[in-house]
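Aggregate trends can hide what the representation actually does to any particular protein. This step matters because it turns folding into a mapping between discrete strings. For completeness, the protein is quoted in full, as a sequence line and a line of structure tokens:
=====
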Amino acid sequence: MRHRSDMTFPAAEYERRLSELRRRMVERGLDAVIITDPENLMYLTDHQTTGYSFFQALIVPLEAEPLMITRALEESNVIARTWLENSRGYPDTGDAILELVSTLRDLRLGDARVGYERNSYYFPAYQQDRFHDAFGEGLVDCFGIVEEGRIRKSQAEIEVMQLAAYAGEAGMAAGLQTAMSGATENEVAAAITAAMFRAGGEFPAVLPYVASGPRSMIGHSTWEGRMIRPGEHVFLEVGGCYRRYHTAMMRTVVNGALSESMYAAQELMKETLAELRALMKPGVTVSEVDRLARTMIESNDVGAKLVTRAGYSIGIAFPPSWDEGYILSLLEGDERPLEEGMTFHLIPWMWGVEGTRTVGISDTVRITEDGCASFFTLPEDFTVHESAARVLPPAHYAPRP
């Protein structure tokens, strides 16, 4: 295996991942697999590009060397950023699917049992239909075959996620300081992203969520130029990223005195996170984690509810989402046991405090040998700007109604 000095992990890490994938291929009776999901390509080879909207595929035979098919421009990423020694680039005027089929035949896999990721975002149905028509029999859905390895992070991956956490914390700290009345949501977002990038972070799969006042009740709402007004709260959710690995956290800012209902929400979320961290360890089921989070949050007397899942796996991600929830989400009825190396974003947030405010405190944790641990050290209490306000000159901003 070719090794580059600037690869995210040592060559041995990729060798382990590849050998484990091939073991699962044998278990499923597959002669080769075609990997098209950007996260899975990154996991297996260190390949990353922002040009993943163009078709790209890694062919992994059981014994022969893997080969990458990609747009000609993106082949430079294969050469410069991965351990792969074999690649084929197709021109913008070329046909990616025909290139894929001809390559499989050149590798003497034309009559083989070949797995492909049927649920991959970037292998759309019309391309799959053409692939089936051109290749013929022998295609098998192998979606999830790489994810079975991704769900448990190695120590090397945990260390990279910790670097993502440092960047995320730096961004969140800057956002908490900036999100006071008189500032705009845009300025808060700018402060978060600048601090993340200065702390060594890279572009996250999702930029920060910044929602002030009534806009916090709009799901996945983010900055929109609105000025934060006295007495309003600000909901923040930030995902730090390093080498495509992510950690995420929610925090809340209050401008003005902390009301009884907001204090109660703060304390309930803090207590819930503490109880979750005490519960989570190898052997505890996903359903048990969800039940604890849901029971505690729904015991509130301030009119809020947990409107979503209780959390989700997190790790490698490209836009449009930073989560690995499609691999594993914390949901009722899932009896899968937690395992050492799993990593989760825990989100016991509260939607609709007294009907008008969404607030959040969340954590990203890793399952250890006998428990779990957080990636973060940032305080969980709401940040309260009780009297401070930033006064902007009239020409600086024309507030929206």
